[in-house]
Amino acid sequence: MATPNKPIILYDNKLETYGYVSVTSESSGYPKENTYDWRYFTQWTSTSSATQNFIIDMGAATTCDSFAIMNHNLGTRGATLSIGTDTASAFPSVTTIGTNAFTDDNPKYISLTSSNERYYRIQITGGSGAYSCGMFFLGNKYTLPVLPQDGFDPDEQQAYFKVNTAITGHAVGSSVTHTDRMQKLSMRYVSEAQAQTFKDFYEDHASLGKPFFYMPDVTNYSTRIYLMRCPNNYALSMPSEGVYRHLNLECQGIRDVKW
Amino acid sequence: MTYATSVALFSKQVIGYVKMTLDRCSNTFGNAPCTATGTVCHYSYQTCKDKANYVKTTRDYIFQSKNAPLLPIAGVRPYLLSHEYMPTTLNPDAAVTVSPRMEFTFCPDWGDHMPLTPMDHDKGTGFYRTETTGEYWKNLFTRNPNARKRPIYYYEGFPGDTEADLQLKFTGEIHDFHFNPDGTVTVVATDNLKALTNATVPNAISSTNVTTLELDSTSTTINVEDASEFKFLPHDLYCMSDTGSTMAFHHVEKDTASAAQEWSKTSLNRFGDFSYNPLTDLAYTVWASGTSTYLYQFERDGLNTPLSLGATLLSGAGGVAYDMVNNVLYATDGLSVSDLHTVDMATGSSVLVGAMTHNAVRGLAHNPVTDTLYGVTGASGLLVSINVSTGSSTAIGTAINASGTKAFYGLAFDKVDSLFYTISSGTIYSITTTGTGTSIGATSISSATGLDIIPYQESYIKIEDSDALSGNEYLALTKIDTTNNQLTVIRRGLFGSSTYSHGLSKKLLQVAPFCVRSTSASPAGINPAMAAMEILQGWMETDYSEMDRDTWLTEMNDWYPSVRVRRIIEKPIKAATLVNQLRQVMTASIFQGEDGKVTLKAFHPINQHTDTLSSFTSSANILQQPAPEIDANGESQKTQIVVYYDPVNPSDETDKNSDYGRVFVLADADTETDNNFGETFAEVIHHPWIYQEADAKRMARQRLRRFKLPAAKYRVAVDRKDYSVKTGDVVQITAYDFLSASGDPQATNFQVIQKQEFLGDGEAYISLQLMDAKIDRTYGFIGHSGAADWTAATATEKYHAYIGSASDSLGAVMSDGTQGYFIW
């Protein structure tokens, strides 16, 4: 295993802030707005397999270094997704800052060549059949300031099930309700500035109960990208020790999203 | 993977799925015919800005369990937090059924911090209102306050299931919705039979709705204050077919041509058109054999094999129509040249009226509103009117198939919609009264021979008249003219009344006769299963698709073919009361099954040849938790059944002994002796439907057999793998909770009186409330061909009846001393 990487959080979605100028097509009942409403189950769907362009105008030059996608069918369709930027909305000289040819429908994180432009374009091309997607993220990653304490488990989860047992003791069947994915991070000795950045994440997003993408280690667990949220009424906890602060983060999400 | 396959697996992840079908306008805002302007509406009636052009259609809103993998169904929202299911509960001892009810709780979907997407996006950019505030549920129900009474469905399935894979568990209507303090929303749903609770049979007529013109003893119209208070019951289209050697009877949806076979009779073919006579509740058809043609009658429910009434003079089997106005049956030849005949409905003998102008008229129908006979030509589908005095015919409009290359059979007239129907090569056509034919759609019916409209019940009224030279009179209606407030009458002096003259201001009642519609003061009764069906489909207008008619007719034919009830109801009575009374006569249950259809379930002994008896044991089925519960149910004991029947006034709902003409008492003396229980537990039943001693006896006998000893209740939980057991079924339980005198587990038959499927955090099981069925005796069934003699018979064959010795002090015995058979 390579050297551990700090967990990454994607929460400040520029698509939620700026929306789209246009999209090539959208099926009745499956609008483009569904891709940034944080509800992965509401989807955008194209009307055909033709190349689809989502055009974003951020109003002014804006940096973005990360893209994520969830609840899509681009692997099934054999499509390629690319993110491009330009100085004009017509994209006369687009610069591609990230691309991925999909082979499965699992959630996917794409690290972008950091770009500072006003216009962005998400392009889907090359597939067969209509495309659909439940969630896009386009923005900047927030890398947690330090590695979590030892004992951190990137695969932690809890299944809720019950075995039905007959009077005589035989197990006759089991019923599974669901499985929660859970993450509990403890980060010690961070600077005051780093603590304030964490507080911004909490106050601007996590404390509102909004979901976010979470990646425990993009190098060692590259396929692990979870849609998580903090538990109800989750309290911010940043106790101090001398000039340092200690951070705690607890989040949970449903495990069984298409992988 | 099918539901049956998934649920049989050891490990199961059950996912709940709710579908609500709400109203929606099919127009697009501001586009013709919608003339609305300004801020875009939300396509609901409540938010409509051009109600005159609102066009109602529907839209499905779908939800699944929140904590479960997302089903691959477009548009599903994982908002279902929990559901509570108060299932159908049969109470055989109290003779009532409790209708099911479900409550679904959904999580909120706040828009404060996350954008809400518009619900009406499907109208396209610029034609929907952008969603900027509010909350999903509040927005939905604020815009659709009429969501109440709209359909709601509950399904269950497993990860990866498409909607087609899901298993329907409940069908009902939205009864109410609540916004809870914690932000969740609860939707309350009731089953389709809930409507019975408040509805009445017949409908009430205002006491001020009286005659406004005098009528004499021959008048065929009645002028009233408000004709709109009177109603026609639904009329459905039926088709007869003739394939090979099988005659089949099909129900056909008039608007979609969707067809479903109701029954068939083998070894019968070569029939022609048919026509239904609502006054006798019999249908008539003709049957061709060589050069001879015979008149046949049959019941619409296929109860008996069609009966030959006698030979006619017809050449082949052609059109048949019953004229309600003049009580005449008409028929045409089935060959290329048609003559018109009248046919005697008792003997089949026919009289030639005359040659028709048009040939091969293979369908006839009578319009009682205009008292006109119509036909349809076999090759071209041309509507013709027929002179019943001469047989000559006159073309109306244009032929459906001008080239004359098709083969049209049967003609039916729906007086409610003023439309004719005919069929050619399985395709149903409607024809207007001006002769314009339109294809409705293709059916699955091959070789159709006839069509007719059959009402669940005709419309009858009573004129209350106490004048010295007059009296009360029952009449049958053919037309309700709400414009001129006039009722048109086809039969007068029914049910023993006379055709009197009636003065002004005589009160009118709509009446519901459940009997043969004749002039007799003591008309024959009808089958209680058919009476219940008339209430549900006729008076309650339960949609055909919501009735489990196959099971209904099978149960009726198997268990109650000869039971008869009779009642003419004049004062509105709650439909639920009437259905419960009919259910009691049959020792049956009427409830909405898991498939959402209203079904009839007979309680009867198990016939090992045809019935499936599920067997549950302590080792393979009955769960430790929730632990089984036993209720000895002593209060269910009835050692004596007293039935008051043959009411003096069948219209009245009364429990006064003196209001009934006869009483039947059946007691179990042995149970009442001091050596046994030493007490009498009597059940007194006042039954206004029963008029024959045999039916009072049968009901009393079956109730006494079941309840002369207390019928214990047993609540057990089983795994979802045992989901196929249904409410009303009989199951055999072998467990240490029920022992023989020697202390060993005693296999005992129980009836499932409630089935509740639990699905919650960490648990999914089925809770069954059972009641001791008390059908552990050996009941005789008619044996199959080739069965072995008693001494060589297999155990299964012994479930059939064999003849034993005459009854002695020990009862009847077989040749080897085995106890004999009992009659259910």
Based on CA inertia axes, which overall geometry of chain B fits?
globular
Q: What's the total helix number of chain B?
A: 7
Silhouette of chain A = globular
Strand count, sense and barrel status of the largest sheet of chain B are: 7 strands, mixed, barrel
pLDDT < 50 runs, ≥5 residues of chain B:
none
Major sheet of chain A, described briefly?
Answer: 7 strands, antiparallel
Describe this structure in words.
The complex is a heterodimer of chains A (259) and B (824). By secondary structure, chain A is mainly beta. In chain A, 8% of the residues lie in helices and 46% in strands. In chain A, strands 2, 3, 4, 5, 6, 7 and 8 form a seven-stranded antiparallel sheet that branches. A four-stranded antiparallel sheet of chain A has the order 9-1-12-13, with no helix packed on it. The longest helix of chain A is centred in the last third of the chain and has 13 residues. The mean pLDDT of chain A is 92. Chain B is mostly beta strands. In chain B, the strands form twelve sheets. In chain B, strands 2-3-4-7-10-9-8 form a seven-stranded mixed β-barrel. In chain B, strands 12-35-34-33-36-37 form a six-stranded antiparallel sheet, with no helix packed on it. Chain B has a six-stranded mixed sheet with strand order 41-47-48-49-46-42, with no helix packed on it. In chain B, a hairpin with a 5-residue loop joins strand 39 and strand 40. In chain B, 43% of the residues are buried. The model of chain B has no long low-confidence stretch (mean pLDDT 88). The chains are: A mainly beta (259), B mainly beta (824). Chains A and B meet through strand 10 and strand 11 of A and strand 1 and strand 49 of B.
